[in-house]
Amino acid sequence: MRTRGKNYTAAKAKVEDRAYGLDEALPLVQQLKFAKFDETVALSIRLGVDPKHADQMVRGTVVLPHGLGKTKRVLVIAGPDKQREATEAGADLVGGDELVDKIQGGWMDFDAVVATPDMMRVVGKLGKVLGPRGLMPNPKTGTVTTDVAKAVQEIQAGKVEFRVDKGGIVHAPVGKTSFPPQNLIDNATALLDSIMKAKPSAAKGKYLRSITVSSTMGPGVLVDESRVEAAVKR
């Protein structure tokens, strides 16, 4: 069993044994911070779905209103007709087949990948490299598209991809502990709203089972999912 340090134990002692409102939980997580770096604040949402069934898969994207507090290096793999558009939109790295070869050679100096549909014939070779890192372009998340400018701008504005894991849980970041509390609340609300809207029609019973928010090093704080549901449905 993992032994927690005294800082974690002290922070955990400040968390009451109850479910908090989102507007209470996020500021509390900030107050509990003890690490010396600017920690990421993330939500863990347990859903009432069985991801083993394709019709109960939950995935999507959301552009967080206040971003994530860091600029992502965006790589665009496109044909010659779209490369200039990608560059003008602010993509950090733009190219064609030569970038695929470079990635196959072990180069990974980027945070997101966008590809045009015509380039997927070569980008498909990168599945084993990009897939495990969550970087493989996909039409469902808007990263395989002819509108490369929009894709680049959304990613740099704070676009977050979410996907339910095998245990029926979505893990997603909503900002940094240094953010103003209201910015974290706005980002978390936007994420939860998108997850609610992504509810599969095949999902039966209670959809939001539990919500926990925490910083990278800090303890989890339970969020009252019934209050979140009520707020989102308004």
Give an overview in words:
There is one protein chain. The protein has 234 residues and is an alpha/beta fold. Helix content is 34%, strand content 21%. The protein contains nine helices and nine strands. The protein has a four-stranded antiparallel β-sheet with strand order 7-1-8-9, covered by helices on one side. A three-stranded parallel β-sheet has the order 4-3-5, sandwiched between helices. It starts with 5 loop residues before the first helix and ends with a helix.
Structure in a nutshell:
Helix 2 (22-31) crosses helix 8. This protein is an alpha/beta fold and 234 residues long.
Index terms:
single chain; about 230 residues; alpha/beta; four-stranded antiparallel β-sheet; three-stranded parallel β-sheet; 9 strands
